[in-house]
Structures are given as structure tokens and as C-alpha cells.
Amino acid sequence: xxxxxxxxxxxxxxxxxxxxxxxxxxxxxxxxxxxxxxxxxxxxxxxxxxxxxxxxxxxxxxxxxxxxxxxxxxxxxxxxxxxxxxxxxxxxxxxxxxxxxxxxxxxxxxxxxxxxxxxxxxxxxxxxxx
Length: 130
Known about the structure:
The chain has helices at 14-32, 76-94, and strands at residues 3-8, 40-45, 64-71, 101-108. By secondary structure, the chain is of the alpha/beta class. The protein has a single domain, classed as 2-Layer Sandwich (Macrophage Migration Inhibitory Factor), CATH 3.30.429.10. β3, α2 and β4 form a beta-alpha-beta unit.
């Protein structure tokens, strides 16, 4: 179950969050070649004085730190494409400058991902873990 955590230094309206999560579900599914039922998304709004990125001297436009936990098996190309697209969405939907976003991937064996009904395996092409 991939878990995408977005820590963002600004407030986001309910409607924007709902559009954002739908776009992220679809994007992740397409690029990472998997279904959406097992994808988790967390959006955490932080006070601008509680989130920093070393390369950003003026955080008035917001900062986004994105942590993605996923199962072993994805290629560097898949991860790079997802990173670039996420940063673009953060800019287009939330007005966070591209240079103010940072994406980090952490990979785990599939057996580290548990839903009530199943333990997942490592990712494979055309994945349908449920």
C-alpha cells in the first residue's frame, strides 16, 4: 500500500483537497502501474514557521515536503516521472513554486504493507494487490 504524505506550509480548502487527492490517486496508479484501492494519501497543513527547506529563503509561497513509502520493484524512471508530475501538480493546484517542493521515496518489501484482508507482495507490472 503506497502511502503518500504531503506536508504543506499553507491552508488548503476542502474542495482543492478533494480534487488534489483524486488527481494523485490517478497519477500514482498510471505511473506506478497499479490499482488505486490500496493507495493512502495524507495531507498535513503546517504553519509556515513549522516547515523549512534549505534551498528556500522566502517561504511565503509555501513549501511542500512529500514522503512516499512504496513497495520494492519500481524503476528509477517511474519514481522520477512521479516526482516531476507531483511537483507540477503542487505548483498548478496549490501555487507552490517548483523549487519549494521536495519528494523522498522510501522503499519496503511488500510484506511491510498490511490491509485487513491481505499482506501485499513486492510490486510487479500490471499490479492488482487486492
